[in-house]
Amino acid sequence: MKKRDFMKFIAIIIGLMIVLPSYGQRKKKEDEEGIVPTYVEGIAYALPRTGIKVHVEAIREKFEPGPYAGFAEQLLGIQNAKTRPSVKWSITNMKIETFAEPDPEQVHKAMGEGAFTISLAANGCISGINSPKSTELPLQTSSNKTFQKPDIDDGFSFDYFSDTPFIIPGDSTNNFRPTRVSVEQKAAEAAQRVLDCRMNQYDLAALRIDGEYPDGKAYEVSLEELKRTEQNYIKLFVGRTTYKTETYSFDYVPGSKDNNTAVIFRISEENGVVPATDLSGKPVMIEFDEVSGLTDKYKSEAVSENPEAGSSGVYYRMPGVANIKITYELNTLATARATIAQFGVIAPFPEDLLGGAYAVEFHPETGAIKSVELK
After folding, report:
1. Which of 38, 45, 211, 281 has the most crowded CB, counting CB atoms within 10 A?
2. What does pTM read for this prediction?
């Protein structure tokens, strides 16, 4: 055996001689004192927190200028006809709802009597203690729409709205070459159609007064058609505006310690309602103003003098209340007053009520105690 290997072997022997006596003494002491290793077992659960779901209805107003807008004042006396296309989005309706979910900041472990008497909801939140009729919160899933529907072509186009040719045959003055009709000429023809429709409506009304239209229905149909034709030709000068309604939903969960002011979504002039992460739009803010005094009163009353308070790991929540406001460019879009669980106070459940003599129900939406009954 080499000298190096022999030295390693001697070191191992010396180490065993040191460790084995101390291990034997500790084992002997544990046996004499009756010490049994213990393991902490229990049931993990969560207290709920409150989330905000905002339903938004928005209308897109899209303007398409008429091809003859530059001639509106000259031919029809219409002033300030718009010549540039535009898109404008506006919020027309908003609804605020709340939902409950497990709070990752309030996950606890029930131990002892609390562990084998606790009841949980489907989402893992506490719902009862020693109570077979504890309130159940069904799992619900709802999708949020964050995209726009594609535009549906209504078949209208200024390019094809004309009853006069774009090209006319030539004559002897230009060797019979086809000639394209100028924009000025087509605008004048369209303006003449507007004036003709107005004159025809006048004539139709005059004939009606003279009693030459015995069929009242025919008169109404003819008059309505003249008005529709007039409006279509006027659109060639003043343009047309189309509207499209979109609906969206956004979720937001306020924190329990931050300032509770955040961007919930944005409004883009071109794309309309977009998520908060889309910086192309202007922010829509959600603000929470907690009701003052309620939390402080909860804290003062929730203090327990029992030194064993909280040893079972069972806690409940006294939820807070807040005023909710949603604003856009200093304008208030919606307000609500709601119970917000995480704005409240956490308190240990009384240890004396954890035995089998009491049945306790919790509100699974907030974690607050619903009832305590003597069985």
Report:
1. 45
2. 0.72
